[in-house]
């Protein structure tokens, strides 16, 4: 998300001649998409899917998580394509060596990737929370929620390590993917790498989740 913000900072962020949108303000699109998508999912998508799957929840908890991973993959593909467009525009207008120049592209180009990240959270994060709470033994539900939160923490560490390794490897060639001058950086390569890793993750998730047996509910008398 930090790179999304840096991307946005190079674009034309004027809504009108006098209103300039702060680049970090676009993070709100992720939150807005979550707020809008949850009732849409609950009131429209679930009832439709219920009629097809014949299950009360529409899709299982693990299917919900898997759907979120797929949407996350889509968000990385969109982000990579938008960054390729941004770099191409910078070259066309001779702005490659002007890191502080405004690229003649509207901020609306990056909104879809923020929205997709928000939708992915609705599926994945909420699905994981539900899964760890529902499938743990009753006496260990607090531990289940702790395990759910640990996933986010581990992800943050892995992200930092990945960025550090990529920066070290690519900077040895004199052209780091994360140059301070984004017009000479290659965030598009990084997004494509994340898309590939997410696709691999999705395949592993599908493989292992297919064998999971859900805990049976015992109705109280």
UniProtKB/TrEMBL annotation:
Subcellular location: Membrane
Key words, A-Z: Membrane, Transmembrane, Transmembrane helix
GO CC annotation, single: membrane
GO molecular-function terms, A-Z: transmembrane transporter activity
Domain of life the protein comes from: Eukaryota
Primary localisation category: membrane
Protein name: Protein NRT1/ PTR FAMILY 5.10
Organism: Rhynchospora pubera
Lineage, broadest ranks: Eukaryota, Viridiplantae, Streptophyta, Embryophyta, Tracheophyta
């Amino acid at each position: 998300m930090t790179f999304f913000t840096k991307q946005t900072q190079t674009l034309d962020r004027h809504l009108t001649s006098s209103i300039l949108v702060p680049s970090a303000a676009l993070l709100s699109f992720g939150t807005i998409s979550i707020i809008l998508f949850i009732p849409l999912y609950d009131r429209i998508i679930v009832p439709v899917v219920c009629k097809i799957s014949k299950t009360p929840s529409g899709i299982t908890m693990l299917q919900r998580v898997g759907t979120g991973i797929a949407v996350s993959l889509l968000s990385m593909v969109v982000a990579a394509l938008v960054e390729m467009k941004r770099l191409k525009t910078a070259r066309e207008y001779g702005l490659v060596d002007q890191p502080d120049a405004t690229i003649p592209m509207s901020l609306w180009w990056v909104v879809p990737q923020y929205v997709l990240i928000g939708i992915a959270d609705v599926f994945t994060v909420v699905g994981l929370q539900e899964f760890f709470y529902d499938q743990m033994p009753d006496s260990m539900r607090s531990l289940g929620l702790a395990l759910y939160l640990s996933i986010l923490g581990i992800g943050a560490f892995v992200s930092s390590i990945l960025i550090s390794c990529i920066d070290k490897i690519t900077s040895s060639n004199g052209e780091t993917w994360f140059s301070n001058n984004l017009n000479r950086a290659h965030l598009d390569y990084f997004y494509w790498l994340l898309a590939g890793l997410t696709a691999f993750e999705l395949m592993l998730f599908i493989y292992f989740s297919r064998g999971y047996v859900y805990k049976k509910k015992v109705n109280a008398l």
